[in-house]
Amino acid sequence: MGVVSEPTQHSDLADLDDLVVRMAGVGVRRGGNTLLADLDWSVELDERWVVLGPNGAGKTTLLRLAAAELHPTSGTVHVLGERLGRVDVFELRPRIGFTSAALANRVPGDETVRDVVISAGYAVLGRWREAYESLDTERADELLAALGIKHLATRTFGTLSEGERKRTLIARSLMTDPEMLLLDEPAAGLDLGGREDLVARLSTFAMDPDAPAMVLVTHHVEEIPPGFTHALLLGDGRTVASGLIDDVLTSENLSATFGQDLMLQRSGDRFFARRR
Ligand SMILES: Nc1ncnc2c1ncn2[C@@H]1O[C@H](COP(=O)(O)OP(=O)(O)OP(=O)(O)O)[C@@H](O)[C@H]1O
């Protein structure tokens, strides 16, 4: 089928300064498996990308490359202007906000919500200082308020619901004022109300011109917040389509990505999909 596959073109060299992620010919192989192959992808400062694909497509692997948590087996990855393999990743990571289920599992259950957020500024999980600066506390509380969970600041992480944990980790990912925000399935496990609330909050961030570049991984088009500008469809470790969301999100491309005959519908600024 006539699937669009348009790697983002950056003809003007000056544009390179605006790239927060640049992957060229990237492959990742582990234990005889090809997780990603021949991937070319760029993210600019003012772009908000959604990465969509079925289970096992390589989405988390892609995000871990962008988070400087993983090195490619082949090809080159630049993150925030630095080439992976030639940069101290411990200096790079505080410039990146990253939330994932793997991170949630590493948070100590007895940590308070406020400390989970504040400790991001120190690139640690778990409280390690007797007292944080009061500025840090103010910033953390501001972020908790923006995510609608300020009332949970003194609760321990282990007592939170799934949705409250997700919001705590998003607040944490914003604590360092990151230049790029990476969200791995932020709406997974949320009920309908929780999902809609999160989509609305992420949409507010996406439309804020001062917000960092964003990449959101999801399985569901329903979870794409209005304001997201670009989409990368991944299937079996390869790009199926990539580019402006309006060009890429089509029934045809979605069907090719998920290997089923799917129909995509748009209602206002939201997307919905079902099998034909
Ligand atoms: N260390 C590893 N060794 C071998 N295979 C691996 C390894 N890590 C991941 N994989 C495989 O690579 C593929 C891609 O994994 P990845 O987690 O990136 O996919 P995903 O698109 O995020 O999937 P999901 O939507 O289910 O979270 C999967 O088939 C996974 O089993």
Automatic annotation (TrEMBL):
<feature type="domain" description="ABC transporter">
    <location>
        <begin position="21"/>
        <end position="261"/>
    </location>
</feature>
<dbReference type="GO" id="GO:0016887">
    <property type="term" value="F:ATP hydrolysis activity"/>
</dbReference>
<dbReference type="GO" id="GO:0005524">
    <property type="term" value="F:ATP binding"/>
</dbReference>
<keyword id="KW-0067">ATP-binding</keyword>
<keyword id="KW-0547">Nucleotide-binding</keyword>
<dbReference type="InterPro" id="IPR027417">
    <property type="entry name" value="P-loop_NTPase"/>
</dbReference>
<dbReference type="InterPro" id="IPR003593">
    <property type="entry name" value="AAA+_ATPase"/>
</dbReference>
<dbReference type="InterPro" id="IPR003439">
    <property type="entry name" value="ABC_transporter-like_ATP-bd"/>
</dbReference>
<dbReference type="Pfam" id="PF00005">
    <property type="entry name" value="ABC_tran"/>
</dbReference>
<protein>
    <submittedName>
        <fullName>Iron complex transport system ATP-binding protein</fullName>
    </submittedName>
</protein>
